[in-house]
Amino acid sequence: MSVRCVRVPREDGETARGRIADADALADDYEIELDDGHLYLPIVESADEAALEAALSDLDADIVDRRPAARETQTLPADILGFEPSYERLGDIAIIDEDDPERARRVANAIADSELPIETVVNRASPVEGELRVREWDVLVGDTTETVHREYGCAFEVDIAEVYFSPRLATERHRIVSDVEADESVFDMFAGVGPFVIPAAKRGADCVGVDLNAAAIEYLRRNAERNSVADRITAIHGDVREVVSEPPDERSEAADSYDDWADRIVMNLPHSADEFLDTAVRLAGNDCLLHYYDIQHDSDPFGPGERAIREAAAPEYDVDIETRREVRSYAPHELNVCLDVRLTR
Predict the structure, then answer these.
(1) What average pLDDT does range 96-120 have in this prediction?
(2) Which of the listed CATH numbers 2.40.10.220, 3.10.50.40, 3.90.1300.10, 3.30.300.110 matches domain 77-144?
(3) Which of 57, 156, 182, 286 could bridge to 345 as Cys pair (CB 3.0-4.6 Å)?
(4) For residue 294, how many C-alpha atoms fall within 13 Å in the half-sphere facing its CB?
C-alpha cells in the first residue's frame, strides 16, 4: 500500500520527526525507513501537507509516495487496563490526574509496562500554587521530574517540580511565534523556560525573557544554549515591574534600555496580567503587538481585558483588538482567552 512520507536527509531526521509528531501527523502504524542517506517518515492520511511543508521549510524535505513496512502493533496502556486512561506526555514523563490512589497506581504501572517511551509517571498532588506557579507531584514511576520536551522543532529542558510548563499550550505558542519576523524585538514578561522566546529567537528575533522563578531562568538559559539561540536571548531573573522600574534613578542600566523597546510583548500570566499592564505600556515601542492572556467567566471572556488594556494605554496609544481567541476551557464557566492587541503611539 502506498503511503505519503516525508523524505529528509538522515542528519535532519530527528528534527523532522519531532515537528511531524508535534503536528500529530506521524503515522505510527508504519516503520520509519532509511534508504540511500534519506529517512522516510510516514504521515497520516489526514495530515495537512501544506502545514507540514511550512513547518519543515528550513529543511531539505519533501513529501513522496512510498510503501513502508507495517509496524507491529504497540502494547498501549489501554491494552493492559481494559480502558483508556487519561494522561499527558511531557518528554518522557506521563502526567495523570487521579484522585483515587489505587487507581492512580494501576494507571501508572500500565503506562510504565506499555511500549510507550515513558521513564516517569507522576500524579498531580496539588493545583498550581504561589507566585512561582508550581505544583506538587506524586512520583509513581521513575525517580526524576526533569525531562526534555520537544515542540515544533525546539527542545525544552524542564523540571516540572521547579517550574510551570503546560504541553497543552503548544498549538497556541506556535500560533504566536509563527508570525514573528526576523529582527523583531520580542519581550516575554513571564518567560518560564522559554517556550515563546526560544522559537521566536530561532526565527531571527531579538528576545528578552523575564521570570520571578530563578529555576525557570536557569532553564531558559540552558534551553537557549541547547537550541543555539543564546546570542539572541537575554534572560533576566526578577519581577518585570522592577526590571522596568520607575522612577528613572532607581533603574538598572540594563532596565533602562527596554523602555519603548518592544515590537511584540507576551503576557501569559492569565490570573493577574492586568496588574502588569502599566509595565507593558512602558515596554511597548511605537507600533507593538501585545498578546494578553486572561481567564474570565464565559459570559464576558474578553471585556475585562479589553477595558484594562485601553485604560492602561490611554492616552499615549491607539488600541486595536486584532484577535479575540478562546484558548481552552479552564474551569466550569471559565475560559482561558487571548487578546492580540495592536498598540500604536
Answers:
(1) 93
(2) 3.30.300.110
(3) 286
(4) 25
